[in-house]
From TrEMBL:
<keyword id="KW-1133">Transmembrane helix</keyword>
<feature type="transmembrane region" description="Helical">
    <location>
        <begin position="270"/>
        <end position="292"/>
    </location>
</feature>
<feature type="transmembrane region" description="Helical">
    <location>
        <begin position="240"/>
        <end position="258"/>
    </location>
</feature>
<feature type="transmembrane region" description="Helical">
    <location>
        <begin position="134"/>
        <end position="156"/>
    </location>
</feature>
<dbReference type="InterPro" id="IPR018383">
    <property type="entry name" value="UPF0324_pro"/>
</dbReference>
<dbReference type="Pfam" id="PF03601">
    <property type="entry name" value="Cons_hypoth698"/>
</dbReference>
<dbReference type="InterPro" id="IPR004630">
    <property type="entry name" value="UPF0324_YeiH-like"/>
</dbReference>
<keyword id="KW-0812">Transmembrane</keyword>
<feature type="transmembrane region" description="Helical">
    <location>
        <begin position="304"/>
        <end position="326"/>
    </location>
</feature>
<keyword id="KW-1003">Cell membrane</keyword>
<feature type="transmembrane region" description="Helical">
    <location>
        <begin position="40"/>
        <end position="58"/>
    </location>
</feature>
<feature type="transmembrane region" description="Helical">
    <location>
        <begin position="332"/>
        <end position="352"/>
    </location>
</feature>
<feature type="transmembrane region" description="Helical">
    <location>
        <begin position="100"/>
        <end position="122"/>
    </location>
</feature>
<protein>
    <submittedName>
        <fullName>YeiH family protein</fullName>
    </submittedName>
</protein>
<feature type="transmembrane region" description="Helical">
    <location>
        <begin position="16"/>
        <end position="34"/>
    </location>
</feature>
<feature type="transmembrane region" description="Helical">
    <location>
        <begin position="162"/>
        <end position="184"/>
    </location>
</feature>
<comment type="similarity">
    <text>Belongs to the UPF0324 family.</text>
</comment>
Amino acid sequence: MQLQSRLNPAFNTHRLLPGLLLTLGLSLSALLLVQLPLPGISTIGPLTLAMLLGIVAGHLGSDRVETLSTEGLQFSRHYLLRAGIILYGLRISFDDLQSAGFNALLIDLVIVVGILATAAWVGIRWLKLDARTAVLIGAGSAICGAAAVLASAPTIRVRQQAVPVAIATVVLFGSAAMLLYPWLFAQEWVQALFNHNGFHNGEIAFGRLVGATTHEVAQVTAVAATLPADAAHTAVVTKLMRVMLLVPVLLVLSQLFGRDDAASDEPSKLPIPWFALVFMLLPLVNSLELLPPQVLDLLHQLDQLCLAMAMAALGFATRISAIRAAGWKPMALGALLFILLLLGGTAMTLLLS
């Protein structure tokens, strides 16, 4: 009880269990369903499916269920989310990063900065979205999909209802990329473009494009399964490099929006996202092989479970009416960013590969 009070006075230890059991059941259901040969399920992934199941449960559940589950749901959205982001770092090793080369990192860096800047500029100036929503959509497109949205949301103190809207853009346009890239790779004119003048390894260059521009890690993995081995490996590693850029992005966002809050009526400045800093240390643990493979595999599963429980908790608090109320502008921004990822990513890949 004392430990829980130190974590957050709002949490009452004996009232955590109902909400945790609820999110655990929803997330395990999602993880189970994606293993089944059901049409369309594998394309959205377990995290998004956990959120969708949470939305359904939230609409069907009674007020009593919601009241009993409140503290466990808050715990899942706050602490389990951070635990999942931290453990995500164990998926990355320095050997993987080195194998992709400096060019992959440079492409990722330009993509992330360009997409975030475009999201902020177009979203605020032209689409008249609030700054936090525009940046949240940009983070999902620029870095690592739903995980980036979830990590960025508490950092910039975005409205809770903006999170599923941002994730919806990731699901829609990330799935579009997942279907488009295998088709493009099979086209002769694309292969000729990526092998122009004999100076480029077309397959590896295409792998960099996939990793640098597809929204979710799971979506990159799905595309990689359709590519030759070298291209597939390059795609996944390039994507993991993008994931690592989440940390500096969160640090910058915490300072930018912390300064905005300090200049307004907000009572305090945002803290530096400590969980992102811990995330950066885990690739070192992975690279030094400090953990046995069995333990590493278990932690990967725990990581996915924590993130799925956080997504289920988010979905439970989401109402379809709030997503409809967001209108067409978030989707328009997501579409623009998708086009920019495809065209700008191709140009950058051909230039630097």
